[in-house]
Write a structure and sequence with these properties.
Layout (H helix, E strand, L loop, with lengths): L1 H31 L3 H5 L3 H16 L7 H20 L3 H14 L17 H10 L3 H12 L3 H5 L4 H6 L2 H12 L4 H8 L6 H11 L4 H13 L1 H12 L2 H4 L11 H18 L4 H16 L3 H25 L3 H4 L2 H29 L22 H13 L6 H26 L1
Helix pairs in contact: 1-3, 4-5, 5-13, 5-18, 6-18, 7-12, 7-17, 7-18, 10-11, 10-20, 11-12, 11-22, 12-13, 12-22, 13-20, 14-20, 14-21, 16-17, 17-18, 21-22
Length: 425
Amino acid sequence: MKNRYRKQIIALVSVVILLTFQSVFGWMDVWASGSSASETLSGSALTGLFNGLKNFWNFTGFANFDIRNLIMIFVGLFFIFLAIKFDYEPLLLVPIGVGILIGNVPFLPGYKIGIYEDGSVMNYLYFGVKQGVYPPLIFLGLGAMTDFSSLISNPKLMILGAAAQIGIFATFLGAAAMGFSPQESGAIGIIGGADGPTAIFLSSKLAPHLMGAIAIAAYSYMALVPVIQPPIMKLIVPKKERLIRMKPPRAVSKTEKIVFPILGLLLTTFIAPSAMPLLGMLFFGNILKESGVTERLADTARNALINIVTILLGLTVGASTQADYFLTVDSLKIFGLGALSFMVATAGGLFFARLMNMFLKGENKINPLIGAAGVSAVPDSARVVQNEGLKNDPTNHLLMHAMGPNVSGVIGSAVGAGILLSFLM
């Protein structure tokens, strides 16, 4: 019986304590105003004590509480729940969720606590987000972890990564139609690339005031890849085409693995020099990995460095969602556009894969499911393709094939960001 009513008793006691605090501090207001009650007692020490307690109360989060803070706290808890319960991008959602909690603890301004207050510790950490420092470091780590073999062995899969970027430009047009400025529309559109660091990098340049909403939307939809993509894949790809078996990728030589990032670096940065901070670091990290002579540097980039930056990036992006900055009509529009852009990007990759099969013969045909991996949510979208392939044929493994368009999507979204930046800056 005690266990049954324990939660109710705790809640009741908490309410009584809170009401008692409010009553005491309400009485202190009367005391300070010079009522007859205060005249019956003497002593400046007692008055000072009450004033000190009143100041303490005014400084607490309870006194500065706003219902919007509670909404955002629930959002942060939901992110943490998704990460722990369903293993949805835990390395991102846990730091972001905790950051949302930190950013929405109510406080009095002027104490250099908040992330938007100059001189606060959180503001210093947020510098890496505002100035676009963290995203290139993330790309360095990604490059040191990425194996481009599947893309090198079957270069035509790169087209699928490019096709999925239709989500970026479709969302750009949608945002402009909803009244956002060209710069804001470009920053919102990059959500369609399903790449959090790229979204942060571009929004820091084009629309810093929307960065929190854009980053949270991008990372949210990246984490929800296993939920969003499968229904679209089943809707667009017929059962018969989901059963297509692809021939094994050919072996790739070490020379090819070294030459590819060098050529990729030069080609992509000549096309979109504005994306050099991202693409340069991505291919640099891959050169460290594939060269065979800088293993210590590659190991640092793909482990210690990317882990540290992920913590700082996730925590500060989450903390930037202070309720008074984040809970706006524009934020709701951004989340709606982000969902649409992700679905359009997924559909673009799937449709183009089916279109490619019209020109391919025999064993050269591709399973259209891998088109969904054209979004750059690495490696989650490739895993979704693998799972969907196994559901239709338990012996049909598509993971290695899906990694081709997946890593191509990373490159494509960065190039898309560079193109938008060159047009809109």
